[in-house]
Design goal:
By secondary structure, the protein is α+β, with helices and mostly antiparallel strands. It has 4 helices and 10 strands. α1 crosses α3.
């Protein structure tokens, strides 16, 4: 029996189960269409009629059924492989699109600009709480150069929090930071596309394998004996300053950070040595 006749016989067998018939109908219609275009169907109908009317021997019928099952199995395997390929390609396209749409924003402390691979969102002034205030906020801010206002009343009055400018306190630094002592600190907010995370690695100038360097610099924080709590920040190793900001007005202060041995293991760390930092991104 030809393959086309097998498909006709398979359809007759499957129609005994109405539910299964509905499931197989699209596949059957495809088979019938191929049979109609490529070959004549008259001889197939004659063979199928002979089998159904008992004119074909039982042995021939068993052979045809076995061949029909094998043919159908090959067909379904081919369809399954095609579906698997389609699913994998769809998944890959979805993940690729997701990577394209990922982006991360970070602050580059001590610089007015962003690295060449990043988009500048704003270039502003670093600000924060006064170093002597026990109720100070911890994090510094990157304040825009074009502030907007809500409802306000000028003058210091009532119970308020305060924000001051930030200054470098680096007069005893061995790096080029010493020349920036008392200068005001700029900042830049940077947008990087096609990455999923940005992380600061203290005590590193380079990134680990699989990470890309955004910028490196010096780890800085507030003085250990001041009342205000602060956080560690990575200040660019070639920092900028704000024009007209050389006078010492204090406020939020950036000091270099030294390693202190004890619970911190030395080696690999060295007592009293200033720490660097690296800001790294990963797709």
């Amino acid at each position: 029996m030809c393959n086309k006749c097998m498909y006709h016989f398979l359809f007759w067998k499957i129609t005994q189960d109405i539910t299964y018939k509905m499931m197989i109908l699209p596949t059957f219609l495809l088979m019938v269409h191929v049979s109609h275009v490529e070959t004549q169907t008259g001889s197939c109908k004659d063979i199928l009629h002979g089998f159904l009317s008992g004119q074909l021997s039982s042995a021939v019928g068993d052979y045809q059924i076995k061949a029909l099952k094998q043919e159908f199995l090959r067909f379904t395997n081919t369809m399954q492989r095609s579906m698997n390929v389609f699913k994998e390609q769809t998944k890959a396209d979805f993940e690729k699109k997701g990577r394209r749409n990922r982006s991360v924003v970070y602050t580059r402390w001590g610089k007015k600009t962003c690295p060449s691979n990043a988009e500048l969102v704003l270039s502003g002034f670093t600000g924060g709480s006064h170093y002597s205030h026990s109720g100070a906020a911890v994090d510094p801010l990157c304040l825009p150069r074009d502030p907007e206002w809500g409802r306000y009343k000028d003058g210091t009055n009532g119970y308020k929090a305060y924000v001051y400018g930030a200054e470098y306190e680096t007069g005893d630094s061995l790096s080029n930071l010493h020349r920036l002592n008392d200068h005001d600190v700029p900042c830049a907010v940077c947008l990087v596309h096609n990455i999923s995370v940005v992380r600061v690695f203290p005590a590193r100038k380079t990134c680990y394998k699989g990470w890309k360097l955004e910028y490196d610099g010096y780890l800085m924080a507030g003085y250990h004996n001041h009342a205000a709590a602060t956080t560690y920040r990575c200040v660019d190793r070639n920092p900028d300053t704000l024009i007209g900001g050389h006078s010492s007005h204090v406020g939020y202060l950036f000091f270099s950070v030294e390693a202190r041995c004890g619970s911190l293991k030395c080696p690999p760390y060295v007592n009293g040595r200033e720490l660097v930092c690296a800001v790294c991104s990963k797709a």
